[in-house]
Amino acid sequence: MAVIALHGPRVAGIRLAQLPPLALYVHIPWCVRKCPYCDFNSHEARGEAPEVDYVGALIKDLEQALPLVWGRRVYSIFFGGGTPSLFSSRAIDVLLSAFRARLPLAPDCEITLEANPGTFEVDKFRDFRTSGVNRLSIGVQSFNPRLLRALGRIHDDRDARRAIETARGLFDEINLDLMYALPGQTPEESEIDVRTAVSFGTSHLSFYHLTIEPNTRFFQHPPSVPDDDTAAAMQEGIEARLAEAGYVHYETSAYARPGRECRHNLNYWRFGDYLGIGAGAHSKLSFPDGILRQMRYKQPKEYMKRVGASDPIQEEHEIRCEDAPFEFMMNALRLTEGFPVPLFAERTGLPITAAEKPLAQAESRGLVERDHECIRPTELGRRFLNDLLQMFLPEKEKA
Prior knowledge:
Radius of gyration: 21 Å
Distance between the termini: 32 Å
């Protein structure tokens, strides 16, 4: 599929006076074992993952995409997956060197790598740090061995603790990913997970509600999970304990020490731009006259083949004027602080009046509060976020 070139006005009404910050997302799709709840584009590495070939494909993919981002500075890089820590430190070093040679990186560029506690090796992670990775996101999910087994994780609680202690000696910025409302989990077990996570004193914590997604083993064979009231009580307990510990609840599932938020994710929520390379990676790229979304081929073998043919894009479309308010709000209203009113026009190219009708409706229902400076979700709006966001869908899609 040929890349759309935005040379002149493409979408009536969308005109951007300036382009938003740009991030780079790098998808590494392999993992040791596919978790039964996971609906991400991840694949079990049966034998050795084709690391050398895939690294080469990522670099070629970036080179082919350069005309879309030429001259723009990159403020964050995120290695996601799958399990990026499966790759060798040499592979990550080669990639970061290639990125530096082809893109102007900000001097304080945040470079995050997702890691599984079951893949931790001290020397390997020390080399990740030496290569330039300055933020580690560790997929703990729980400190309870029974719950880890129920989730199909390859690590146990001892692996998790060991990985965190090792990371603390190497990285200043560490995120722990955890989940709640797990199969058979009690509120008391959720409380223990929160207290254990807090005890490590890391700069950032993420707590995700387990959801049963289509195309997962849990969807085919549903486990017994806590009911909605119990899950809500767990969420309230998590929020209270983390507030007590000094963490700021800055996004739906994210908590950070003041000033230690994940800049890469903040860029998503503020409707910034990101170039995604790798199998199934998504991109959102702005131009003076339109906003483009892309998705690369998902299957790793097909992706590498397509990159070799200079054709890695499976789907792409421009954001329509009528869709822009929903696209923006779907991100910005995840932030507890909301967004400054001028940001809407800056990132969508539309006046805030384009969203006035749903904003007024949301305000009347107590889901948002606003003044001339800021629009933010209320506590009720954050709790019923999906209902709030549906108000911003184009009228023909609300039926």
